[in-house]
Amino acid sequence: MKKFWKLFVVFAQIGVCTFGGGYAMLSLLQRVVVEKYHWATEEELMDYYAIGQCTPGIIAINTSTFIGYKLLGLPGAIVATMGFVFPSIIIITLIAAFLQNFADLAIVAHAFAGIRVCVCVLIFDAVVKLGKKSIINKASVVIFLVIAALSIFTSIPTVVLVVASGVVGYILYVAGGKKA
Q1: DSSP assignment, residue 154?
Q2: End-to-end CA distance of the chain, in Å?
Q3: What distance in Å separates the CA atoms of residue 52 and residue 48, rounded to the nearest whole number?
Q4: Is residue 67 within 8 Å of residue 30, measured between CB atoms?
C-alpha cells in the first residue's frame, strides 16, 4: 500500500504543475521519473512519450499510466493516472467556480499571459532534452527535418506523422542492419 501511496503522491505533485498541458510536463516527468526515482530510463520515457502521442488523451497522463503499469501493474497504472489528474480536477473545479467573477480583472489577464510564456519555456526545454537524446545521427536529423516541415506546413494528423516516423526508423535502423 505504501508503494501505491508514493506513486499517487508523486504523480499528484507533478499533476499540480500541469500548466500548459502534457507537453509542458515532459521536462518535469523526465526529472522526476528518470533522475530522481529511477522508475524508467531515458529511452523508456521517450518510448512512453511516443506511445502516449499515438494514443487518445493527454501525453503526460498517458505517460504516467505507462509508468504506473511498469511499476505496479494495472493497479499502479490506475493509481498513477488518478494521482496525475486529481489536482487538475480540484483546480479546474475551483477555477470554474470563481473565474467568471475575476476574468475581467487586469491582474488575472496578466497572470495568464505570464503563465503562457512559462509554458512555452517548459515545452522548449522538453524539446531540447528530447532532441539531444533522439537526434543522434544523419538519419535522425533527416527524419526530424522532414517531420518538422510536414508538421508546420501541412495538416497531416500527428498520429500519422508519429507512425510514419516509426516505420521509417524501422526501415532505416533495423532492416538496414544498423543498430537501433
Answers
A1: S
A2: 38
A3: 6
A4: no
User: In Å, how far are 24, 72, 79, 80 from 66, measured between CA atoms?
Assistant: 18, 10, 11, 9
The SS3 assignment for 118 reads: helix
Convert the pLDDT of each residue in 150-167 to its tens digit: 999 999 998 899 889 989
In this predicted structure, what is the pLDDT of residue 9?
95
Q: What is the Cα 163 distance to its own chain's centre?
A: 17
Q: Pick from 40-49, 105-114, 152-161 the range whose average pLDDT is largest.
A: 152-161
**Site of grid cell 494514443:** 55
**Which amino acid type is present at position 71?**
L
DSSP-assigned states of every residue in 2-60? HHHHHHHHHHHHHHTT-TT-HHHHHHHHIIIIIIIS-SS-HHHHHHHHHHHHHSSS-HH
CA gap 125, 52 in Å, rounded: 19
Q: What is the pTM of this model?
A: 0.61
What is the H or E stretch that residue 96 is in? helix 59-102
As given in the structure block, the three cell numbers for residue 122 are: 517548459
**The pLDDT value given to residue 180:** 46
